[in-house]
Prior knowledge:
There is one protein chain. By secondary structure, the protein is of the alpha/beta class. It has one domain: NAD(P)-binding Rossmann-like Domain (Rossmann fold, 3-Layer(aba) Sandwich). It has helices at 17-28, 40-52, 67-81, 105-133, 155-175, 193-198, 202-211, 220-231, and strands at 8-12, 32-37, 56-61, 86-89, 136-141, 180-187, 242-245. Strands 3-2-1-4-5-6-7 form a seven-stranded parallel sheet, with helices on both faces. The longest helix is centred in the middle third of the chain and has 29 residues, at 105-133. The protein is globular, with a radius of gyration of 17 Å. The N and C termini lie far apart (42 Å).
Amino acid sequence: MKSLTGKVAIVTGASSGIGDAAAKLFATSGARLVVGARRSAELERLVAEIIASGGEAAALAGDVRDESYASALVDLAETRFGGLDIAFNNAGTLGEMGPTVGVSAASFAETLMTNLTGAFLGAKYQVPAMLRRGAGSLIFTSSIAGHTVGFPGVAAYSASKAGLVGLTMSLAAEFGPQRIRVNAVLPGAVDTPLYREMNTTAEAQSFIAGLHALKRVSSPGEVARSVLFLASDDSSFLTGAAVIVDGGVSINRT
């Protein structure tokens, strides 16, 4: 049997990168999907691909900073597919880059609103839906940035991603007795549009690849397979964890 057969999952930030890869992998593993992102056309393309491959999916475009959107995603999962078992809160932004002393307070707050508050709002509505099902798996996309590695010029991004680890631990402790597992995946560099936005030259990309023990960056699909593990019952005794999927950046000194 497929590892997510009978499960219903929400994936945010699903229009590209890790979210897109995870949604497709969840679908091929048996889950029925509600996919979210800001770009409606990209979500419809994703849903069409999932359906063409024999899966089931529905899309709802919106902004994770909007609390009503968090609620609407859960409502769609429950009305269309009967409940919610898994949520992968993956939506995020790089935010303003550059010297920290030059970053505006408004820009810093906006990055935290998307990456951290958006994840909190998702969980606020996802957890009650999972409780109605009797169990669930909640997953956040954090980062090694701000956890095991410090990068200059990305203060808001790093702070928001570090905050997600704390949110993960708090939710795991709070809802563990009610069979809700909560974990964060912490990727290294992943070849996504966000990665290319941050590293715009071949020289920059080569430098970043060299930071990894594996001397390369990952594909979105490689990270998605770790997310699938956290979503499935294969990780049934794993909760409150910051799962590092970084190709060895955190330990590499060569």
